[in-house]
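Revision sheet: structure tokens.
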Amino acid sequence: MSLYSQWQTMANFLEQAQTAAHQGNWTQLSQSLQQWLLADAIAPASQGDFEQGLRLALTVLEAGDFQSRWEIAKVLPAFGQAAIAPLIDLLQDEEADLESRWFAARILGQFDHPDVIETLIGILQTAADEELTMMAAEALANLGSAAIAPLTTLLQDSTTRLFAVQSMAKIRHPETIPPLLTVVNDPQPTIRAMAIEALGSFHDPQILPVLIQALTDPAAVVRRTAVATFGVQSNPMMDTDRVSYLSDRLWDLNLDVCQQAAIALGRLGTDRAVEALFRVLKSPHTPVPLQLETIRALGWAETELALECLEQSLALLGEADTPPFVYQEIVTTLGHWAAPSLQPRASQILIDLLHSNHPAIADAPTRQAIALGLGHLGQIQAIEPLTQLLADPEIGVQLHAIAALKTLDLQASLRHLETLSQQDDLSEAMKRGVAIALEEWRRVRSEE
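Predicted:
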């Protein structure tokens, strides 16, 4: 295509954009401008056309609906620094539509320019609308380390401290450590929690004592944040006593903190962490939500000791007035055991439970969960107990058993079912179950 033809194409796109603007067709306007900018990359437009394209894009931002503003927000950065001044004017215009100002702040966050930083800081200091202030904070965070110095100044003002911490927490740069350390004892729990969470991203000797102190903060939101941060920190300085500190929070007065401690200990997965979790699980005073979280945490540990603890928990909880869904959680956790070396044992625990008089077996959803778990674990010794479930009085259990058998050795399962179907001493329930299973096998074969 000749240069003249390229310019002509650009002129057509710009004309289409103008027509769409007159018609208030903001979607078409955005699309035409995108095509125009693509052509501009090949054959640069004249200064006049460039300014006209920018004005049209700003028109969408000022007058369009949310979706068209969202689309034009992707286009405006392509105009480069020429877009900064009008976007700043729009952001600072208190008479303008609030949503268009919000988008202006969002777009400005893509320009690392002193005027942009100054303007966004001004919005944090003066804007009355919280959503606009939050967007300004996010835009500053997008600018990275260039925004740290002005944000540090805002930390000194109680009216802007919260949004300054929000911005600084998202920058994730080591230069934020000193200013964030200045607010870890702030009167506002939200600010303390944000600072703790942000500091947890770094490996710095100054941070460890701050995290330890936050574990006993008067505010539950700070303790919970400290526990979550403490649990994922990989600083070698923390390895010695981390389990001890987290174990204490398993007994916190706030349930959310306890649950977060269980999650953190499960991620650690050490024997000491597992032992701490088991002490909570077998305590008669542990609330059900924490029991469930502790069971899941033991599953994440995926160690032999964790498996033993879950097996013992079935027996211990069976002696108490335990809700059925607690047993279901244990069964589900065992059925999803991922460590291949321990899958045979996990499968045997479920089989033994199925053959026991444990109160959990009276619950049909638990029997379904056992069937599903045996299918996931994929152990051949599960064929016989799964076959027995075909005689279960609940059709849901039968169907789960059939599905599980299909995931095991298909031919071995089929031979076992065919052998059973020829026996005369089967119960009526078993005959029906085997017949249903064989019919399912025939259906699968016919579809192959």
